Amino acid sequence: MSTGNDVVARNTRLLREQRGLSMAELARQAGLAKQTLSTVEQGTGNPTVDTLFAIATALEVPVTRLVSVREEVTMVQRGDEALWYERSGYAVRSLDHVYGSGVIENFLLRIGPAGPPDEQGGEAGQSAPHPAGTLEHLYVISGRVRVGPVDSPVELGAGDFVRYPADIPHRYESLDGGEGLAHVVVSVPRALPGTGAGGSR
Length: 201
Known about the structure:
The chain is of the alpha+beta class. It has helices spanning 4-18, 23-30, 34-42, 49-59, 64-67, and strands spanning 75-77, 85-87, 90-92, 102-111, 126-127, 135-142, 145-149, 154-156, 161-165, 170-174, 180-189. It has two domains: 4-71, 434 Repressor (Amino-terminal Domain); 73-189, Jelly Rolls.
């Protein structure tokens, strides 16, 4: 089981690498000594609350992004529980936020029932992992679907929203024998020189 220091270490390193920052540059922006940041990323230090807030501010994320366990990244927002608010005379429903820079892929997805394995033996409706740190943000326009990580998919209806990690195998399947239509935003972290990371598909 991961310790709190391990969680902070992994999240800090991932967020820093997504932004293409060196350890020295992040330390400079956070107003910390490089050695302090190094111990945080190695999981060997005991960062203070002030240190965590300094790192989070430099990375432009809420401090909760540093202390949340990776497996808890899946988030579901049900349509009948959605909150709407007024902004400049318009009614707005917030779905999610994408932090950092990189490739943002935005598309509509028609989702059919799960079929037999394809010619290569792969499972129909299943997608291979995308680059590390990739997230998918999926809003169901119509139909009922089962989507998300292969080991923990969620069932959704029209108006529901989910965000889940897409750097692990994930799937899309319509339910009740019909076709589902979804709006999908894929956020892929910026590729670093020499990593070989590319697009999401």
